[in-house]
Amino acid sequence: MTHRVLVVTAGLTVPSSTRLLADQLAEATSAQVGARGESVEVEYVELREVAGELATFMTTGGIPTPRLTELRERVSAADGLIAVTPVFNASFSGLFKMFFDALDPDALTGTPVLVAATAGSARHSLVLDHAMRPLFAYLRAVVVPTGVFAATEDFGSHGLSDRITRAASELASLVLSQGDYGVGGFAPDLAARPRRTPGTQVESDVTPFGDLLRGHTGSDPR
Amino acid sequence: MQFGIFSVGDVTTDPTDGRTPSEAERIASMTQLALKAEEVGLDVFATGEHHNPPFVVSSPTTHLGYIAAKTENLILSTSTTLITTNDPVKIAEDYAFLQHLSGGRVDLMMGRGNTGPVYPWFGKDIRDGIKLAVENYHLLRKLWREPVVNWQGEFRTPLQGYTSTPAPLDGTPPFVWHGSIRSSEIAEQAAYYGDGFFHNHIFWNKEHTEAMVKLYRRRFEHYGHGAADQAYVGLGGQVFMASTEAEAKRTFRPYFDNAPVYGHGPSMEEFTKMTPLTVGTPEQVIERTLGFADYVGDYQRQLFLIDHAGLPTSLVMEQMEMLGTEVVPVLRKEFERRRPAHVPSDPPTHTSLVAAGPDAPHHLVEPARARAEELAQAQA
């Protein structure tokens, strides 16, 4: 079975150091999945390409636009996510945040996420922990223990590739364990399975009205 | 088929001259709009309800009562009545009273509202939105259908031996629509009671509107009210017209670009592609509007948004003239041409509901109850 990992990058220039880091993380993840005898398909999302659609989405109260809708569906179908942002004024970039603001709150529930960031200097490295982890914690994603921060000077150091390998290894393990909710017969509680939805479709399995009305007919025992 | 207009009642600065109408002017212009609707041969005027600036529409039945006195045939409706924060007891009384004043020219559209703080201002919690809509509407149905109501629910103080007065005109409660943009629960609610479903439509892409209407139609049939294509569907629409497309675009663009809901975002051309907005000639409006039935099916009510974004009354009246003389007559003919015989043209009106008699399902609090129980048993 092929697993799908989506790389979301918020770099603004071409080429960008954010994309450079994203490429290395993706390659390392592929290698780590391969080393476990499985295969992974990596897809890239350059947020710059939907910057205009994100602005439309925000200013219209959420009117879906074609590319953004497709992206939101791809995010919720992925087995794992690599999220990479440049640091702007001490946090993730506005473009990066706009994309995650456009997701359904259940879009990433239970999904393994590797967080990474680039900046001009190492002084911004805590952005991983003070900005990115809380964002994905709110979205109930599972952030791998190792985050990868790359200041410009790190692109000439050994430490970076070690951290990339470690983070990719952690992500690979989690991606491959997706779908394990107990052995049949031992943990039959499917309700505990995280609910995940892109929120782009009208739900067709509506709650029957009798259930919605229960306790609200005015004559129910209270 | 019914055609009409719906207004949100916003006070918005005209971006072309910086002038902001007073509340008095805005209310007067809405009244003028409603009277014009009857004059040019439209069927429905629906007012919004809001309880915060920049809106003036806090007291719909006061306004509709005044309009009722000045009109003969116009159906007075709402877009929407806040079923969440209003007391259903007061809704039952106010709109029954309006029925008596207007000779039954009343229906309502239930909605949950969209301004967070309105809930706490009226002692409610926005997180209970769906539950409030469910419980309050159920109580409203009882108040209009049972002579004496005993009630204990979650949200309002209990009622013992309560009789809502005046009773609905001719013992016949008004027809009700449920408006919802995104919530499948509300489409389900409309389907359960056999009520109408209205989709705002104008801020959404057609695929979404289509999916919501399909859901409602499927569940309407499920609950045994008729075939899916016989369910009562209403849609919003948004147009601006001139004799040429270029002129329409030139005149409307500053209003579009500064509109409170979508201004400063997508271009007018992008928004036209994404949503049902049509800025062009009456012929273009006709063509686009007829196309709505291709994705929601043959439907019963079309309401247009005409008076918003700071458009001055004079321009709005011109739009009404074109709508009444050039657009709607063609739409009436063309929509009927494509409609199969078994699909109703009009939604229920007071006249048709009275004619159906006191034993019609409309008079039951839960017309689908037996059917729903049957279905639940069959499943078990």
Question: How does this structure look, described?
Answer:
The complex is a heterodimer of chains A (222) and B (380). Helix content of chain A is 38%, strand content 18%. Chain A contains seven helices and seven strands; from the N terminus they run E-H-E-H-H-E-E-H-E-H-E-E-H-H. Chain A has helices spanning 17-35, 51-59, 66-77, 94-101, 127-138, 158-176, 209-213; strands at residues 2-9, 39-46, 80-88, 91-92, 112-119, 142-143, 148-151. In chain A, strands 1, 2, 3, 4, 5, 6 and 7 form a seven-stranded mixed β-sheet that branches. In chain A, helix 1 links the parallel strand 1 (2-9) and strand 2. The mean pLDDT of chain A is 91. Chain B has one domain (2-379): Alpha-Beta Barrel (TIM Barrel), CATH 3.20.20. In chain B, strands 1, 2, 3, 4, 5, 8, 9, 10, 11 and 12 form a ten-stranded parallel β-sheet that branches. Chain B has a two-stranded antiparallel sheet with strand order 6-7. In chain B, helix 1 links the parallel strand 1 and strand 2 (44-47). Chain B starts with a strand and ends with a helix. The chains are: A alpha/beta (222), B alpha/beta (380). The A-B interface holds A 55-56, 58-61, 63-65, 201-204, 206-210, 212-213, 215-219, 222 and B 130-131, 134-135, 138-139, 142, 149-154, 182, 184-185, 187-189, 191-192, 203-205, 208, 211-212, 215, 219, 223, 261-266, 270-271, 274-275, 372, 376.
Output the keywords.
heterodimer, A: 222 residues, alpha/beta, Rossmann fold, seven-stranded mixed beta sheet, B: 380 residues, TIM Barrel, ten-stranded parallel beta sheet, two-stranded antiparallel ribbon, FMN_Rdtase-like_dom (chain A)
Please summarize the sheet with the most strands of chain B.
10 strands, parallel
Q: Indicate the low-confidence ranges of chain B by residue numbers.
A: none
Structural class of chain B: alpha/beta
Residue fraction in strands of chain B? 5-15%
Per CATH, the superfamily of chain B is: Luciferase-like domain
